[in-house]
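Researcher: Structure for this, please.
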Amino acid sequence: MINLNALITNTSYYCGISYLFRKIFSSKGKFVIMFHGVSKEKIPNLPIDIQPHLDINQFNFILNWIKNSFQILDPDTFMTSQKNGVLLTFDDGFLNNFSNVLPILETYDAPALFFITTENIEFPEKSLHFVTNKLKNYGINKSDLSRDIRKDLFDGISKRNLIKMSSNPLVTIGSHSKTHPLLSQCSNEDLNVEIVRSKKYLESLIKRPVRFFAYPSGDYNQLVLDKVSNSGYEAAFGIDKIENLGRTKFEIPRIGIYSSSRPYLAAKFSGLYQSPIKHLK
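Model: Predicted structure, C-alpha cell format:
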C-alpha cells in the first residue's frame, strides 16, 4: 500500500517545493519543536513503537540539519525578541534526556527547554502510565528487560541528575505536570496538584523559578489555561493543534519531530505543516 503522506513529503522535497516554501515563509518567524526520549540505539528485538522515536545518531543528524538552516533560540530570546529561529523542547523527563541528549546539545552549543513530569523524578524506575500501558499491550514485563535497556528507554531522571542538568547554562526546566493526565478532565483539586504543586516541587529541587508549562498530550481548555496563567507561569506550550482561546503566550504550538529523513524535516519546517510564530501576547 502506498503511504500517501510519505509520497507527498518526498515529492515536495525532491521537486524543491519544501525548500522554496522554507525560504519564503520559515525565515519570517519562529518555530518550537518537540522531542521526547532519545535512545542510544534501536533495540532489534523490541517493538519499535515502545522505543523512543529517535536514537542519538538520528538526533545528532536532526540537530545538525537545524543548526545549518536556523538559529537555535533560548527560551528568553524566543519569548521576548523578534529574532527568527527555532526553540528546542523535550517532554516527560526521561533519563536519556540527561545521558544522551545533553551531551549532543553541548556539542552544538544548543539551548533547550525540558518539560518535566515530576512523577518521573520522584519515582524514576516506575515509568509513566503511558509507558506502562504500551509495555502491557505487548505483553512485556519491564523487569524482564536488562537494566541498561530500562534505563536507556524508560526510566526518568533522578533528582540528583535533574539538579545537575538544571545547572547547565544551556538548560531551562519547565513543568509537564505531576502525572501526565488529560488536564481538561481533572478536578480543580487535581489541577492544583498537576499545575501548581509540580511547579513548586521542581523549584524546590533546582532552586530557581519554573516559568514555563507544557500541556500533557496538548490537552487543555479555558479552565486549564486560566489555572496555568494564574499560577505564576509566563507561558505554556501545546502540540501541533491548539484551541485558539486568544492567549497566544499560553497556547504556543509545537511541531513534533519523529523522523530524521531530509524530506520529513524539510516538510515539517516548510511553513506548510505549521505557520511560523510571529507574535505572542
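Researcher: Any notable elements?
Model: The first helix runs from residue 4 to 14. The CA atoms of residues 48 and 89 lie 23 Å apart.
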